[in-house]
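Researcher: Structure for this, please.
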Amino acid sequence: MSGLFRTRVTEFFGIRLPIVASGMQWLSTADYVGAAAACGIMGFITAGSFPEPSLLRNEIRRCRDLAGGKPFGVNVTMLPKLTEKKTIEQIFDLIIDEEVRFVETAGRNPEAYLPRLHAAGIKVLHKVPAVKYALKAQEIGVDAVTVVGAECGGHPGMELVGTMVQAAVAARDIKIPLIVGGGMGTGAHIVAALALGADGVAIGTRFLVAEEIWAHRSYKERLIQADETDTTLLLQSLGNTMRVLSNEAADTIKQLEQIHGGNLDVLMPHISGKVGRKAYETGETAAGALAIGQAVAFADRIEPLAAIVDRMENEARQAFERLARLTVPALRCKED
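Model: Predicted structure, token format:
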């Protein structure tokens, strides 16, 4: 299928569908991002998944081959206290050297890096958990913005405003291309987001069961069994809310927060990304704070990413058709 969508997001990235496969720590590799490019959507390799610059460089080059000339980008998540400024600068140096065209930033204000990225011809998509941060990002000169609602996996912010509200509020004042995420799992969600004034959607959780995601099959099978009630919120004590899969590790972390509050030293052994990576490797989903959004309800089978995207496109077409049937034809005035 082609020609179903033409939005500022499809034009901004040069993609066929207004879908961004947001960077997911450890999981957004060249295989996954290259498959996204082949599907006509936008994907981002997560720089934080590669501890050595040489590994990231090799992954970018491998993705370029898999993408076959179609666009892709690199995600740079700049979480306070967890990322050194020098490392961020090195990552951007590498991205510029490799002539990557798009960067997705999150976790911290990217203003200091924008002049150099823009001078290199790189367009910056910044991801935020609230409209007020989107407005600031627009003010400092990012090229596009993603606003995620409370339903999203990972970090939905402290205010926990739902995606339906976030999208409509953001659309009033955001003039640059606007992407919304959180709970997006079907083609009907894409149509709804566009109707609210967004230009595209960000999807993470729904794609976790794609074959190109390298995580253990048992992990994916656990997601297939889950529904929209199988997530929980952690880390409010750190001022960095995280939506994760409900599991034994999440219960332990909640107990520790009640006793120790926001003591990062106490919490880190349980929330460390390395613990989550081990769960992806082994399929032991009782361990680790595993970022999962409420759209896990729509993850119903393990299949190639292309098959998931095809289904979403069909669902979007059906949603448009439903809306067309609900439209009342204009009545023509009868001439006397």
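Researcher: Any notable elements?
Model: Strands lie at 19-21, 42-46, 73-77, 102-106, 123-128, 144-148, 178-181, 200-203, 231-234, 242-245. The CA atoms of residues 27 and 322 lie 35 Å apart.
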